[in-house]
What we know:
The structure holds 2 protein chains of 2 kinds. By secondary structure, chain A is mostly helical. Helix content of chain A is 63%, strand content 0%. In chain A, helix 1 (6-24) packs antiparallel against helix 2, helix 1 crosses helix 6 (124-135) and helix 3 packs parallel to helix 7. By secondary structure, chain B is of the alpha/beta class. Chain B has helices at residues 12-15, 28-44, 81-91, 104-114, 132-140, 152-158, 165-173, 200-209, and strands at 50-57, 60-66, 71-76, 96-98, 150-151, 186-187. In chain B, helix 5 (132-140) packs across helix 7 (165-173) and helix 6 (152-158) packs across helix 7. The longest helix of chain B has 17 residues, at 28-44. Classes of the chains: A mainly alpha, B alpha/beta. Chain B: Residues 51-126 form the Methylguanine DNA methyltransferase ribonuclease-like domain. Chain B: Its main location: cytoplasm. Chain B: It is found in: Cytoplasm.
Amino acid sequence: MTLRPFEQVVAEYGPMVLRVCRAVVGPVDAEDAWSETFLAALRAYPGLPGDADVEAWLVTIAHRKAVDAARADSRRPIAVPEVPEPGPRALAEGPAAGSGSDGDLWNGQLWDGELWQALKALPQRQRAAVAYHHLAGLPYKEIAAITGGTADAARRAAADGIKSLRSSLGTHAEEKGEKR
Amino acid sequence: MTVSASGSASGPQRREEPVFAALPVEDTPAQLRLHERLVGAAERDGLLDVAYRTLETPVGSLLLAATEEGLVRVAYDVQDHDAALADLAGRVSPRVLRAPARLEQAVRQIEEYFEGRRTSFELALDMRLTKGFRREVIARLPSIGYGRTESYAQVAEAAGNPRAVRAVGTACATNPLPVVLPCHRVVRSDGSAGGYAGGAEAKRTLLALEGAA
């Protein structure tokens, strides 16, 4: 089986990987993480077996990039995130659009900063399990292969993560459900 | 919403956990920005093995693809662009991206040709998709000048194999670089246009454009 043009891989999985990156490394670093993931994927692509699970392969690469970025981040003496210009919605709605801190004023029209605040509060393991299962749609066995540990542990991490997210987002998630 | 005990993927509806409702599934501006960034990085790192784009012309949408060596493929709509790209992925490299910048010169020259302002192409070509006698035939095509035609038999003779009339027909039919390598200038001995990869009408259009019909 021959490989499809890489362009089709970007078109099919690009949006999913961006959601995963946004959930795992956050809005500020997500696009860098996406870019590193797809450049590494492009480099390795000709060697990928034709019957490989492309989705799991991409999430595996994205995971490694996220782990690398987290390590680099922890070595950085003072992490000063870039604060992008506030987007139209953030401007229209004023400071109340974010959940308070300046970091939330990134392109506010894309998705709500509250979600990232809630995700950021999760242990890294739970955040990854939640994103890989609920955004990438990977089975727990696959997630365990990526993050280490057992499928049961991945399932528990995802369940605990979702529980924490629901409680920290409260009714907001339901109110905002209609926006999508 | 149920998740099976094994946790296997059981359909997209399972994935949409309500807490992620605020996170857009599609974010087109971001995707466009990221695509452009990927193409730039791929070009910089020598990973853009095949760059392509499409171009609207009087003979329909043309797919243009180039390797680092040069233009490698021109495909008509009727030849199925997706099939042409799949073929490139299999025969050249699967590192195929939509990356218009590399095709700028080809686009400009083809546009000039269709505006009647250009009679020959000056482009780097990558002929790797054709081999042997077919390649010899294809490579000689530019010697048939703009606005002129030759018969399949004449081309066979010029290629040093007068009896290879059918092979010339096959070479033209499988020309990976139509328009640029002018197989449309090869016609039947009786003067009728004959077959063409882009369809008989495209061939007539090109010959009419060149004032040869």
